[in-house]
From TrEMBL:
Residues 15-41 are annotated as: Disordered. PROSITE patterns: PHYTOCYANIN (PS51485). Gene3D superfamilies: Cupredoxins - blue copper proteins. Residues 60-163 form the Phytocyanin domain. The lineage of its organism: Eukaryota, Viridiplantae, Streptophyta, Embryophyta, Tracheophyta. PANTHER family: BLUE COPPER PROTEIN, OS05G0570900 PROTEIN. It holds the Pfam family Cu_bind_like. It comes from the Eukaryota. GO terms for cellular component: plasma membrane. InterPro entries: Cupredoxin (IPR008972), Phytocyanin-like (IPR039391), Phytocyanin_dom (IPR003245). This is Phytocyanin domain-containing protein. Transmembrane segments: none annotated. Keywords: Disulfide bond, Glycoprotein.
Length: 169
């Protein structure tokens, strides 16, 4: 059983319960388990999937910009506001959802390059969307789009990544 797709649940991104083929099983095709047996099995598998995806949410898979994705934002503070109340920990992953050719993701190395949207000394650049970036070290991380004036228009994200063993108790 696989989990499939993305949907928003309680203001947090998570995965749908089943692949479409699995949802279609048990519609009375004349063989195998009854609809009731198949339904119970699918519910159990779905519950396992929910638990699995909730555990992943604690690992920190962040869809940058939520359902809006990675594109020129409605205002220049959009991505900062999105990140403001989130905690990013070493090992978390950022997922940038965008259309290849329309956007890209640059990881900059300095606050100054980020501030002025410079592409002189980049850590990494990704052109094919969607892009997943694993956060492998603590400290400041700077991401921005290098297409046209997208960065200048606010398509940029600053986050501070904490160590895994940070404990607030």
């Amino acid at each position: 059983m696989k989990c499939y797709g993305i949907e928003r649940v309680e203001e947090r991104e998570t995965w749908e319960l089943m692949e479409p083929k699995e949802r279609d099983r048990g519609r009375g095709d004349g063989g195998g388990e009854s609809k009731e047996e198949e339904g119970v099995k699918m519910r159990r598998e779905g519950e396992s999937c929910i638990v699995s995806r909730q555990a992943q949410a604690h690992l920190g898979i962040h869809i940058v910009g939520g359902s809006y994705g990675w594109k020129i934002p409605p205002n220049r503070t959009f991505y900062g506001e999105w990140a403001k109340n989130k905690t990013f920990i070493v090992g978390d992953k950022l997922v940038f959802l965008y259309t290849t050719g329309m956007e890209n993701v640059i990881e900059g190395s300095t606050e100054e390059d980020f501030k002025y949207c410079n592409q002189n000394d980049v850590v990494d650049i990704n052109y094919a969307g969607p892009t997943t970036v694993e956060l492998t070290k603590p400290g400041p991380h700077y991401f921005y789009c290098g297409v046209g004036l997208h960065c200048e228009d606010g398509e940029k994200l600053y986050i501070n990544v904490e160590n895994k063993n940070t404990n607030n108790n």
